[in-house]
Batch of 2 targets.
Target 1
Amino acid sequence: MTEVDWLSQLLRMITVTGRLEVRCAYGAPWRVSWPQAAANEIPYHIVLKGRAILKDSEMDTVTELVGGDIVLLPHGSKHVLDDGSGQAPAPTHNRRDSAGWMLSENDGPGERLDLLCGRFFVRQPHDRLIRNYLPTNVVIRALGSNTAEAVGSASQHLTGLMGLMRLESTSDKLGGNAVLNALSSALFALVLRAASETEDAPPGLLALAGHPRLAPAISALFADPARPWTLPELADLCSMSRATFMRHFQDKLGRSAIDLLTDIRMSLAANELKKPGMTTAGVAESVGYQSEAAFRRAFAEWMGMTPGQWRRSTGDGR
């Protein structure tokens, strides 16, 4: 089987949009904090210049970020960014830009920081895929290597994207807000690609995708989720025994291959149920269930509501 682009398949399935919200132009000392985000929101921060200390209360971690670094918080955890001095932050002055985002400045005398802050929005119920298969934090060092081998890497592409976002956020050109939001959406895909390319990819789909021996299985699940896959078939694709495949998959992903298959099927089903004229029986068959009753049970267990209730909640009463 030819391996498919699983990341493109995932992003077509879950629908992610982005929005720039704040540009911070600070001198130390400074400090900004964010509360727990809503279930379908993923905060992001781009350090254009300077240095910042990220403190994640959920993971109880402290991470130093420098110019060119990007951080996503897929679980939307409560977090703080500051200059690391421990001093009381200088007062900020905020004003709304004509494009719709906020410019936040202070009069701090210390090292300067230029920071873009925004969030991604994941259409429900696909936020569950984000929480289940992406880590609490994803940090990308976009300004790493400039070697010839790295020219085509996602990190290098991110550097170019950050440059565009910097330009758009400092200009008053027509359509600037729309351009920034479109660039934010591209940012999500490039960050995930870059994370999967690193040798120490965080646990979850990103680590699994970077595991050469397991890549055929994840590609197969995304390419043909309606197929009645068995563990021996998936193991064969990876040239492993069933037991070895199960162990490696669980170690890298934290969940089983069957769990991932079910989540893909239910996410696709949630999308299909919103289509006018699509019957529940038709949706069941399209995602690999021969029995409508079995599909109804699986969907209700996964979603917490029946297919009909989900359809009505999205505005389609069929």
Target 2
Amino acid sequence: MNTLARLEHVTRRFGDVTALDNVSLEIGSGRIVGLLGPNGAGKSTLLSLLQGLRRPTSGTVELFGGSPGDHHNRRMLGCTPQETALPPTLRVGEVLDYVGAHFENPAPKQELAEQFGFADLLRRQTGSLSGGQKRRISVALAFVGRPKLVLLDEPTTGLDVDARKVLWAAVQAQQAAGATVVVTSHYLEEIEALAERVVVIGEGRVLADDDLSSVLEQVGLRMLRLTTEHPDAVSALPEVVDTRAEEDGAHTFFVRDADEAVRALVHSGVPFHGLSVRGASLEEAFLTLTGGAGAQPVHLNAKGSN
């Protein structure tokens, strides 16, 4: 597997804020890699370094074996930023033609438009489109030049459920045709739908780097909220990962399997009331896995460049 991009002990600071803290990461060819983490975790900063838009404060960033700051090394790189900006007076087809003219062998316009679900918009001015329509076009533009590596930063921002699924299918088709894709998201569902390898980032550090199923086991926590006079007994149940006392006297218990945890709770005979169950947000799961907001993040089954 060829290494397309690499970060070695990279730190990036913005004044007193450390956006990335000693991150080492390799992106090999042929896969969809998900960068998963809450807002502000450092995902967009990492992509900006790979694009050559920023330089690391310390450490080394490589793109196709050289510096991302060298435009020759960016010729086979496709990108879609979080913010969508298209020339409002140009038609969609004209935008695709304009971008495609910068490449030796661009992808066919009609084929790309059909794949990303906007073939009926080719003659429309981009200024007349909805935010979701613009977003789909912006993501498609990242693939116009048949790049080897594509960086997608929060690609489904502003899309409804159906449009997200169309975009996911298009990205998977591009990967099957040979593109390596790195996609950032704070939606667990999105990474689960797309990625084969998942890198979890929190507070500027790599918390986990593994295949999808292994990472889901780490961040797919559920929360049982209940009131009991015996929280220590509930915390001792085998499914419970962590416990949080609430201001109203209730307790929240983080568990890996809610069904098993409830069964174990009932069988234990511990009296309780006011039971509710919900999924933990990624941020809540990260804080639990790292031992709290001030704790040092732990590396969970890190596999490097797989």
